[in-house]
Amino acid sequence: MAKGTAAERILNLAASHGIISARDVREAGVHTQALTRLVRAGRLARVAPGQYRLSNSESDFTEHHGLVLATAAAPRGVICLLSALQFHEIGTQLPREVWLALPRGTRAPRVDYPPLRVVRFSGEAFDTGVEHHVLEGRSVPIYSIAKTLADCFKFRNRIGMDAVLEALSQAWEDRRVALAEVDRYARICRVRNVMRPYLEAIAA
């Protein structure tokens, strides 16, 4: 394959996906050495280990850039807990790390940026409640508000009960969730008994 053809395919891939990895390039049938040449030529920018985007697209970065990078580095990962709350604009928490859910047995990615806080989910608790939002041209999986509230109760010892109750109260007051939906995820996450008194209190 000619160099120009390889470069063109990579640049087109980066234009359509926002962020690409060496794996994406290999799957497109292009040798990854072309990535190095494009970075040296200033046509691609390396934004994280193994992650690249068009060098002239920095102005397209958003406040959610860390979420994009995290899920690009971990294709099976889902944005969860405090990072999901921040994305949905629920509560006042400003996490310094990206909270990322991975299936049990999945290796966490090694990245310099963004800092990750990896938690392990399994079965239905991992698979359900996932929404896909297009951020910086890339589809990013993020748990829904209702699923995130149930997850927060499950991981309440890690994130703090004050943050959990603040999120639940705001989501209810802003009419962002239905109690039946939250209760469904509470059952899936096995925190129904823990959540029930709080759900009954806000609904009273």
Strand content: 15-25%
Poorly predicted regions are none
Largest sheet: 3 strands, antiparallel
Mean pLDDT: 88
Separate helix tally? 11
Which oligomeric state applies? single chain
Our Rg estimate from Cα atoms comes to 19 Å
How is this structure best described in words?
The structure is a single chain. The protein has 204 residues and is α+β, with helices and mostly antiparallel strands. The protein has two domains: 3-60, Arc Repressor Mutant, subunit A; 65-203, Beta Polymerase, domain 2 (2-Layer Sandwich). Helices cover 48% and strands 18% of the residues. It contains eleven helices and eight strands. It has helices spanning 3-17, 22-27, 33-40, 65-73, 81-87, 124-127, 145-154, 156-159, 161-173, 179-188, 192-203; strands at 20-21, 44-48, 51-54, 78-79, 98-103, 116-121, 130-135, 138-143. The strands form three sheets. A three-stranded antiparallel β-sheet has the order 1-3-2. α5 (81-87) runs antiparallel to α7 (145-154). The longest helix has 15 residues, at 3-17. The relative contact order is 0.11. The mean pLDDT is 88.
